[in-house]
Every structure is written in C-alpha cells, then in structure tokens.
Structure to design on (231 residues):
C-alpha cells in the first residue's frame, strides 16, 4: 500500500518568497505531524493535527509558518516570506490515531528539502 | 522539558562487529521510547520501540531495552552488516493525553565496511 507522500521533494526559493509544502498521509490515518530537520540534526516537532483539528502548534518557529488540514486528510505547510534560516528538510508523518504515547507508530514521508537563497 | 542524548558519530565498524549506540533521555512521567533509522536516500523508518520499563524492542537483529533506573535505551546488534549503514535516531514521546510529538536525538551515523 501507499505510504506517506510529500511534494515537492525539492524546493528552491528566493528569500522573501512564499512556499507551500504538501503532505498526503496514509489513508485512514487520523493523526498527522510536521517536523523540521536541519542539516546534521534530528527532526524537531512543528505541529500536530487530529483529523482536521490542529491540536498543537507549539513548535512553529514564527507566525510566518502556517499549517492546515481542512478535510482531515491532505495537509499543507505554508511558509511566508521565507528566510535563509528556514532552509531544512520538512518531514510529514501520520499515524492511525491515539498518538505514540499509546504505542502508535508514526510513518514518515520522504521529506521536502527546502533551500532558501 | 523532554530531551534525548545519543552518542555522537560517525561510527565506523567492520562487518560482523558488535554495535552499541548509547541513548539516554530526560522526560516527565513514563515515556515511550523508539529507535528510527534513515537509510541513504530514504525516509525515516521505525526500527523498534518499547512502551514501558524493562520492555525489550527488537527487529532485524537490533535490540534495545527500556531502562528506567538509568533512563537509557541503548541500541545493540551482535553482528553488523554493510546494509546496516545508516543514520540512527533515538526518540521518545510522552504517554499522557494531549500532545503526542516525538522528541529526537541528533542522530548517529553508522558506516559498516566490508
């Protein structure tokens, strides 16, 4: 079956441009997470959805970052007025539901590598 | 807050050598613990997990035991193969209601040479 897919796989933006990154979770997965992975670092949590509800956005680094999941399936992470420090790999993960605290496994997509020039 | 510390890499081993990658954590309550692996050019994959103290997770010859007394979850494999070359991430999650994000270590790059 299909795993988590993300598009585009690579994105180059000029500083100040807006970008939109898409995540298609595994069908039927209730929970969806976004992470940011800087070069040589582990992923860091950005935001979490349960169905269409954004339950936690505490990891979003600034108000330039916005995420949505309007119909409880596909999600979009939008970054406005990109800065060089936004350059990173953006990972999306989905899980059946209930969260990893109950042993629920998160399945990761391949990521979108964003480079801001 | 929650944090994960894992041994710095890179680690280079000969094929069939014994592998240990140390991981310790700081967390409130009783977290669930995970090892994820990232093979070259691929996404993160769950390798193994343990959800309570003294549980042992195992997969593909890798093992890790949840040690609450030492707040550790060290990854071990008795005989590594070239195909095990990858970056390994230790991670935890809270087990209570509310937020369920994973907190990751920085990763340890393993290279296995023939």
């Amino acid at each position: 079956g299909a795993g988590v897919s993300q598009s585009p796989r690579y994105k180059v933006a000029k500083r100040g441009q807006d970008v939109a990154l898409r995540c298609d979770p595994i069908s039927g997965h209730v929970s969806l997470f976004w992470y940011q992975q800087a070069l040589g670092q582990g992923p860091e949590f950005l935001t979490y959805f349960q169905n269409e509800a954004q339950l936690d956005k505490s990891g979003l680094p600034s108000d330039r970052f916005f995420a949505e999941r309007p119909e409880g399936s596909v999600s979009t992470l939008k970054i406005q007025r990109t800065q060089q420090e936004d350059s990173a790999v953006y990972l999306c993960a989905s899980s059946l539901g209930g969260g990893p605290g109950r042993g629920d496994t998160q399945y990761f997509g391949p990521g979108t590598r964003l480079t801001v020039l | 807050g929650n944090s994960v510390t894992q041994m710095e890499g890179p680690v280079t081993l000969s094929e069939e050598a014994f592998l240990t990658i140390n991981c310790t954590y700081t967390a409130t309550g009783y977290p669930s613990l995970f090892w994820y692996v990232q093979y070259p050019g691929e996404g993160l994959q769950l390798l193994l997990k343990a959800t309570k103290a003294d549980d042992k997770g195992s997969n593909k010859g890798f093992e890790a035991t949840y040690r609450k007394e030492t707040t550790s979850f060290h990854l071990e494999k008795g005989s590594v193969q070239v195909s095990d070359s990858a970056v390994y991430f230790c991670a935890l999650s809270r087990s209570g209601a509310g937020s369920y994000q994973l907190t990751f270590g920085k990763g340890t790059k393993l290279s296995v040479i023939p």
